């Protein structure tokens, strides 16, 4: 028997035929897929559909056309971004595909694309016209259940490089623009976010504007943006989820916006008392409203001046406003020099900021009060060196440093 061929029994043949027929029927009927048509899934199909929809979005002249370009599953995002376009005066939108991920990378079946978006802002835009703007961002998309395209689910920082562009404000979520006077108050949230993250923001901004106008006589236009979460704040600033750390507010420029922008970090605001929140808002708005954004002015003077304005009428004891620095001085003596950029960005930045503030306090105390401080600050913002600016008010960096060190040493001895 070892040399003879084996025969398959007739019953086994019938079983194999039955299995094959069942497999064919299942593949044809797709009982697990419901009644919907097969969604776009092939890489080439997804890319073709995406390019077509991006072109439709660029040509969209009204909200229905814009919404159609997002696909049925992106209707909520489409509605929010169209309203944001209107609120911020966004026009002439163009979108170009840079790259598309080969396959879905999340459990919801979505994948990432990188898109270059360009736009302009209307001359009468509430946040100022800034000419042409461009941002390269991530786009989250998923094959449409209807099978005839893709759903655009939202914009996120790009994932294909180490330095992502900030997500444009008008693409970040549901945007509202309010505020009176020179400062606009902008809130932004995604559908997953709850209520306003900083409900007292209107009163904080109003108090800050009044303080800055009274102390400096300046009221340049600006915007305060209140995202609904720390993660959203990081997206607006082009940083990772943990990129803000303990930073409560950042003053910057934003694509398509013609005024300086203060972005608050709600995660840090939750940890602060009312006084601390007010100091942060006034400090950051001082940068925005006095021409500091985009200059190469000496950092310690710019930061010290902002705190000098914020704390101008503060009645808290020095141990509250400069406690970390005074403890450091009591332990190790006064710093050898005024705060450097590295000091203000390092692990002891809180003490360095306190030192910058007290240097401005000493300048005003010894050289003629508020007028001397304002004169020196405006000169530096205008392009003068610190030595030139201090010389114009009868001081110098060396002289100010010595007087500042003496003040710190004395103050530390009285509170230790």
Characterization of the model:
The structure is a single chain. The chain is α+β, with helices and mostly antiparallel strands and 416 residues long. It has 3 domains: 43-162, Nuclear Transport Factor 2, Chain: A; 172-293, Zincin-like; 295-416, no CATH class. Helix content is 46%, strand content 16%. The chain contains 16 helices and 9 strands. It has helices at residues 10-29, 43-59, 63-70, 75-88, 201-216, 230-236, 266-269, 274-289, 299-310, 318-321, 323-332, 341-345, 349-367, 370-381, 386-392, 397-415, and strands spanning 90-100, 111-121, 132-143, 150-156, 174-178, 183-189, 222-227, 249-252, 261-264. The strands form 2 sheets. It has a 5-stranded mixed sheet. Strand 3 and strand 4 (150-156) form a beta hairpin. Helix 13 (349-367) packs across helix 14 (370-381), helix 13 (349-367) packs across helix 16 (397-415) and helix 14 (370-381) runs antiparallel to helix 15. The protein is elongated.
């Amino acid at each position: 028997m070892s040399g003879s061929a084996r025969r398959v029994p007739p019953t086994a043949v019938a079983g194999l035929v039955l299995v094959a027929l069942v497999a064919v029927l299942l593949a044809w009927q797709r009982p697990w897929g419901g009644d919907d048509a097969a969604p776009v899934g092939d890489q080439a199909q997804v890319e073709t559909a995406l390019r077509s929809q991006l072109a439709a979005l660029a040509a969209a002249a009204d909200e229905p056309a814009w919404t159609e370009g997002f696909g049925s599953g992106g209707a909520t995002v489409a509605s929010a971004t169209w309203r944001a376009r209107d609120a911020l005066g966004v026009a002439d939108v163009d979108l170009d595909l840079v790259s598309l991920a080969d396959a879905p990378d999340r459990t919801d079946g979505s994948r990432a694309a990188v898109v270059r978006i360009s736009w302009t802002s209307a001359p009468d835009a509430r946040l100022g016209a800034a000419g042409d703007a461009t941002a390269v961002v991530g786009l989250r998309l998923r094959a449409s259940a209807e099978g005839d395209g893709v759903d655009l689910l939202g914009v996120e920082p790009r994932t294909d490089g180490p330095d992502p562009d900030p997500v444009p404000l008008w693409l970040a979520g549901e945007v509202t623009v309010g505020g009176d006077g020179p400062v606009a108050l902008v809130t932004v949230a995604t559908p997953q976010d709850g209520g306003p993250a900083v409900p007292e923001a209107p009163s904080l901004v109003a108090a800050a504007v009044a303080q800055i106008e009274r102390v400096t006589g300046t009221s340049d236009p600006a915007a305060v943006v209140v995202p609904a979460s720390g993660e959203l704040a990081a997206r607006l600033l082009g940083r990772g989820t943990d990129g803000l750390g303990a930073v409560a507010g950042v003053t910057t420029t934003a694509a398509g916006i013609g005024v300086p922008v203060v972005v608050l970090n709600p995660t840090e605001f939750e940890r602060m008392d009312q006084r601390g929140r007010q100091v942060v808002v006034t400090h950051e708005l001082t940068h925005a409203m006095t021409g500091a954004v985009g200059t190469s002015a000496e950092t310690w003077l710019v930061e010290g001046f902002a705190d000098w304005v914020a704390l101008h009428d503060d009645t808290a004891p020095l141990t509250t406003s400069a406690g970390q620095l005074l403890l450091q001085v009591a332990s190790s003596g006064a710093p050898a020099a005024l705060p450097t950029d590295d000091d203000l960005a390092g692990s002891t930045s809180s003490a360095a900021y306190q030192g910058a503030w007290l240097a401005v306090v000493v300048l005003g105390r010894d050289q003629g009060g508020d007028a001397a401080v304002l004169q020196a600050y405006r000169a530096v913002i205008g392009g003068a060196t610190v030595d030139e600016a201090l010389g114009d008010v009868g001081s110098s960096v060396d002289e100010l440093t010595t007087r500042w060190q003496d003040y710190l040493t004395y103050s530390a001895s009285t509170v230790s």
